[in-house]
Protein 1
Amino acid sequence: MKTIYLAGAIFAGSASMALAQQLAPSPTLDAVKARGHIECGVHLGLPGFSFANDKGEWTGLDVDYCKALAAAVLGDATKVKFTPTSVQQRWPILQSGQVDLLSRNSTITFSRNATLGLNFQGINFYEGQTFIVRKKANVKSAEDLDGASICVAAGSTEEKNAADWFRERNLKVTITNFQKNDDAITAYDSGRCDAYTAGVGALAGQRVKLKVPDDHIILTKPISNDPQGPVTRWGDERWQLIVRWVLNGTIAAEMLGVTSKNVDEMKANSKNTEVRRLLGAEGGFGAMMGLPDDWMYKVIKQVGNYGESYERTVGMGSTLKLERGQNQLWTKGGLLFTPPFQ
Amino acid sequence: MRTGVPTSWRERLFGTPVTAVVTLLLAAAIAWIATPIIRWALIDATWNGQTRNDCTGTGACWVFVKARFGQFMYGFYPIEERWRPNLAGLAFLLGGGAVVFAPQRLRLRLGLAALVILPLLGVWLLGGGYGLRAIETREWGGLMLTVFISIYASLIAIPLGILLALGRQSELKVIRLIAVLFIEFWRGVPIIAVIFLASLLLPLIMPTGIGVDRLARAVIGLGFCIAAYMAEAVRGGLQALPKGQREAATALGLTYWKATSFIILPQALRISLPAITNEFIALVKNTTLVLVVSILDLLGIAQASLADPNWVGMNMEAYVFSGGIYWLICFALSRWSRSLETKRGR
């Protein structure tokens, strides 16, 4: 018996080595190349993340990721077509192969990963329920809300989450129920409550609607954990690899200080081996996935690193003016992290 | 001499002290309700500007609708190609008008020709190919798409509905069974489920490579559902006809099809015109259901444009504007059918 296992292990080992040299087949990548564009499923309309602007161009943080992928795979960030998807159709549209991936604020959960036949390829936005409060109230974190009143939509997940969270910590808050989210935020704006609660991304969109948006801040430390990222089908590991490492690459670029402005100079002059590998100056990393070695160079040049994309779409360069919060590099107090390019 | 029916407005509204009081009360109520709406929509509204910052008034901000007008009408259809949907619309109007106003003896032939040529012309103009730049259906949207879905779904629904209604009356058992099964199936399934299944389940079942366009699938699904309703509307007309009509036609030596198309259907359709119009208006409004599969018709594009952070909070404007357009279309349709009824009713 043992010898059979051993022989099997040796065979499997040598087979995997052979495959690694040859590249695993990737039907999705082949289809993308033949088609000449990536099919990307996005949200129908979510401020800052995915929406069509006045000119009808798709923009936003989730949209930017697909542009980055197009730059890496096809060398051109414009070679991507967007399919807006509703909540009901997002999984089936990916499962049935109508899109190559979803980049659509979908929370990564165990049961989704285990039962839908889909994989989540990293995190491009740490979403979580948090609070919006008035600047002058001097509230720094959710704990400071002890004794405060909070406006919520009755029966929402947010109401339950908030009630549980404060109860567990023995903090007293008054939760004021409203029929709809819009009523709750209007009541907050008119001063009936000290805080309003929703996800970070949603609050950023809501804050713009307030009478004086600048008077309000969104607490950066959330009370729930709803990470979101690009989604692919099971199977086609090489495509999954590409999707995962393009995202990692944009985060690594920010970490290493590579931006769309300095990418040419960095590629030519940087002594840092990780930068050189990332930008394809050495190491042949692109070829290992069946892409040109300058895949990440194209991404950074055309779309920018994660931070640039964030600031442009939801951050300070946008109308939403959302702080980085958890979506800051781990070295700067956030959660963004990428394994090294080694 | 008084005839019992009041004749002048003054008499109707202020004829007796009681009517006068009721009139005044109702007028006050209307003014009370309408004033804030008019103030919001017209008086306090902002009309001029470019961005959200120009929306300083307390009322509606129509700047938003102005900035997005192109999208509301055409979706993401390329700006330089928007003459094509315009031309297609014009062709349908002229073609339809020509059929309606043609002399009686030409009408049938002209109608059949239009029925074949116009839909093909429309698809070619909108979709491109054969000399025109191809434009994928994902770029279609807005009012243009609403009209497209309404027209093409009814092009499936009306002929199919008539056939089904005739089939249901047929003396051949098999045909009757097929018609009944079809009608009962499509009438019993919620339209939203049909659209959903057509959009999501079909690609899962179909072998790869055979892709029917997403929009086409939705239009066909919608067309089948409405066909079932149409069939029942037409059946009402068929059953209202005295049996003697067909018997007389047969006695004259007319075949089934001749009797049906020259004697039975013209009368039956006239009777069921209000019901058919009703179904058609329902269809126009049901087109909004394609939103569940993210096909951006007028309502869909209005909703999607609310997500632009540069225009966030324009919900009222978007819904009032798109709702107003739906109302205009449906109202025009119902007036048109009323005028047909009175004309034909003579």
Note: Chain B touches chain A at residues 67-68, 71, 75-76, 136, 138, 196, 199-201, 203-204, 208, 214, 291-294, 296, 300, 303-310, 312-313, 315 (CB under 8 Å).
Protein 2
Amino acid sequence: MLIFTLKRLLSLGLSLIAASVAIFFVVEIIPGDPARLMLGINATQDAVDALRTQMGLDQGLLSRYWLWVSGLLQGDFGISYTYRVPVAEMVQGRVWVSLPLALYALLLSTAIAFPIGIIAAAKRGSWADWLVMGGTQLGVAIPNFWFAMIMVSILALKYHLFSAGGFPGWDEPLAALKALTLPAVVLALPQASILARVMRSSLLDTLSEDFMRTARAKGRTARGAMVHHALRNAMIPVLTIIGLQFSFLLAGAIIIEKIFFLPGLGSMIFTAITQRDLIVVESVVMLLVFAVILVTFLVDITYAMVDPRLRRRA
Amino acid sequence: MKRAFKMPGFTIGFILAFTFAAAALISFIWSPFGTDGVDIVNKLHTPDATNWFGTDHLGRDIFSMIMVGARTSIAVAIVAVGIGVLLGVPLGLAAAARKGSLLDEVIMRGNDLIFAFPALLIAILITAVFGPSAINAIIAIGIFNIPVFARLSRGGALSLWTRDFVLAARVSGKSRVRISFEHILPNITNLLIVQGTIQFSLGILAEAALSYIGLGAQPPIPSWGRMLADSQTMVSFAPHLALFPGLAIVLTVLGLNLMGDALRDLFDPKLRRDRQ
């Protein structure tokens, strides 16, 4: 287990280094001089040069990469070119929108997917199964931004049940939760559909295992065998998908945050790209990729703890 | 093929996908109206006998726009899947042919790395760096197809390398490269077709999303995603503007997914046994 963990840690470190190099160089080729952009077109060349020196832009690529990465490691994300505040501060304000939104959506997704996936598997071939399979097929096919438009125009504009966008802040927890509800539902729909299908097929695989027959033979009821034997064994692929979905929800909410005018990380990156605020783009993308890689790592380690066979395979 | 059409899912999916593919092709020679002319007098008409799906805020016929928009969606998705197959499959086959080697390790870790990047985020980054256009959208979507096909073909190839017919080919002196292309590749085509169909539908969704936020195909090229973006401020008084392009996306994606699922069932003997 120790060797497995060490190996995984090593690969985690390598992934992070490779990711940081990739992000740094992609962002570096974005055209435009940030110093010129900050000072405006009327600034003298001297002033621009001075600012470039101050920002470290006159140094070579490698030393700038090193400055950025060593800063990141110390929690220093640099200073936004546009707003002149530390990026870390900007992130702090926004993470408390994106993270709760992702968790809320994940919660909804699992809450919807588990029961309908289990019902579909337990009543295989029944009308309920057909309904779940058809519904999830539709859920995957609906673009979530279109779904968002429909929800807003019906629930917000027509019946005024929700606001069409914006975020009141966590000082009013209930209002904040309400503001996140529509975005979370929209984000959760395709994820719930995928998860329900995985749940169903994984459960169907387990139900045909020999130990299920044994469980029934020794007198377990169908429901008891399902709860105590099948569900637990069907969870591995389901957990993988949940892990992937969390990263996806955290990072993939850009469009949804934009539609609902939510001040989250996604909309922050989007604005930063249009403003050529490179340091914000670099640092936030790196942060999100770090989150994704970390979640994958944790999921891997959890499996290995649960299932010794996986340790050898790695 | 005959067996495929016996499955209701495949038939429904095929009809849906075929309809949109046909609409895209027909639009090259005919559509009810042109899509680049502005006809303000006839703006925001609701659907009627002349304009089957109504007209938009510039008076353009929505039915015609959807026909022409299908071209953009399909072209972007086809090329993006093509990039994934042409680069991903050889990489996957190479990794499998030299299993456990440094090459294998590098290819697989590279795949993991691409998977770690939130796809949409990087697509936005790429289009932001190189400017929004259909071509850049294709590249951005295509990059994320590479690891999908690499992983799939490596997995499929690994199980084939232990088979007797591959051993026979090796004994007869064929190189690993030749074996990969002559014996392994034909045997994983089914897997690739199924995955290709799924990635195709994901490509259509991704193109719609990128166009929706203004980073995909640029005006005046009609695109379903941008039609939805244009309609956003007018949804409350002209819902048909948002309805039809959205339905076009949903039905195309649904059709492709139904086909993909049916083909997977058809190709996978284990599932087939289950069904009987």
Note: Chain A has one domain: 90-311.
